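Lab manual, section 2.4: Encoding a predicted structure.

Procedure: take the sequence of the chain (232 residues), apply the prediction step described in section 2.3, and record the output as structure tokens. A sample record is shown.
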Amino acid sequence: MPFTLDNVVPWGRSLDEYVRMFDLEKLSPDCRLLGCADGPAAFNAGWTRCGRQIVSCDPLYYFTAEEIQGRIDACFQMVLQQTRENQDGFVWNKTISDIETLGQVRSQSMQTFLKDYPHGLQEGRYVAAELPDLPFPDDQFDVALCSHFLFLYGALGAEFHRRSIASLLRVASQVRIFPLLQLDRQPSPFVREVIRQVEFEGHTAKIVRVPYEFQKGANEMLVLQKTGTGRN
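Recorded output:
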């Protein structure tokens, strides 16, 4: 099935959220990052402004800024309403204290992305691509991140997860995936399968607590490290 805008609900997170989701504060300044399924997040724009190296990939980047803005406008209130109906499943704090603040934070993040997007496309920082088949050379990146995609959607299936993990470990020395829960806040059945796969191939895998939690219980990431590598 070809990817169309009707297949996606754009929802972008901030640079601060990415830093906390993936515990990025201790990364080396010259670390080469890949962000998978970044969508309309402000992460690439903010990370670039900090003088860091990053490429984001997502099938959303097949489309223009105007087309993406139109899809954001079509989905925005629907997503907020769904969150309002399930607000007991989230952790509200001083950063995001209520539904209205969530809308402001998400809107600001996505507008930051949209302003940066045309220039970032020209610079090659936004690449139209998707898991499980990544179009990058082997070992191009030090760390690959995958936010709110793998493990979140159980319907993707075990084979999709296996192929995606293999692709991520091909292009990066280390892989970090967040969160480890499905949309229903239940543990993903694929986490243990991925760990077994990675360890069988001679690499290492560990679950790490992170300083971020918005979906209740979603406060851990999976870190996969290729054997014999460790620059990050």
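Check your result against the sample. Residues 5-225 form a domain with the Rossmann fold fold (CATH 3.40.50.150).
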